[in-house]
Amino acid sequence: KIHVVDAATRKSTDLVVGRPFSESSTMFGRATRAYIAYDLNAERLVFLKDTWRSDHPKLRAESKTYRELKRHKVPHIPNVLYAGDVRNTRRRLQDTVAQTFARDEDDWRVSNWKLERHVHHRVVQDIAYPLESALDVKEFLQALHDSLIGMFLQSCPLIFDEQGR
User: Fold this and answer.
1) Taking the alpha carbons of 152, 155, 160, 162 in that order, is the dihedral positive or negative?
2) Which residue, among 25, 123, 114, 28, has the nearest Cα to 66 in the 3D structure?
3) How far apart are CA 51 and CA 25, in angstroms?
4) In whole angstroms, what is the distance from residue 70 CA to residue 51 CA?
5) Does residue 103 sit in helix, strand or coil?
6) pTM of the entire structure?
7) Is the pLDDT at 53 greater than 50, yes or no?
8) Which of 66, 60, 69, 84 shows the shortest CA–CA distance to 6?
9) Percentage of residues in the chain with pLDDT exceeding 70?
């Protein structure tokens, strides 16, 4: 059971989660895990993405991107129910510290990659299912159609005015 708080609305709930159905197997990266979770307040299944986002000033958190797309009425985007950076019991961000100790000249360094600060981030959305679970050809083609429309809209930003219409 984990407690999630939405950074935008301050709403919160408890989620019951089991094993992730998808997780990163690489030692480097953002340790992303995907779960089907049960929202105890809403009494329904939801999708939970748990990841460590790069804390770079030019990068927007994934949840903010989803909300911006919704605000501009981009179709076929799941609703964000709860999202935000994870904080500990003292309200301090959960973040990485390795970057403060690693020096380029350290013998254990095997690459030239600069270690960056990452922040623990969670997004809870309406549940979505993998394409392999489509009930029939019609449902599969509808999902494919929706994704192509989304790609088209992304590549043609000039079709929206300033209000996203």
Assistant:
1) positive
2) 123
3) 13
4) 21
5) coil
6) 0.71
7) yes
8) 84
9) 75
Residue 50 pLDDT: 93
Cα 14-23-153 angle, rounded to 5 deg: 85
CA atoms within 13 A of residue 102's CA, in its CB half-sphere: 15
Which among 55, 54, 49 has a CA at the least distance from the CA of 78? 49
Give 17's strand partners. Answer: 37
Q: Locate tokens 């909300």: which residue? A: 67
The token duo for 74 is 């981009």
Query: Which pair of structure tokens corresponds to residue 124?
Result: 């809870």
Residue 163 to residues 73, 78, 91, 136, Cα–Cα distance (Å): 10, 20, 35, 37
In whole angstroms, what is the distance from residue 34 CA to residue 23 CA? 6
Q: Which residue has the higher pLDDT, 86 or 75?
A: 86
Output the pLDDT for position 20.
Answer: 84
Give the model's pLDDT for residue 154: 62
DSSP 8-state class, residue 79: P
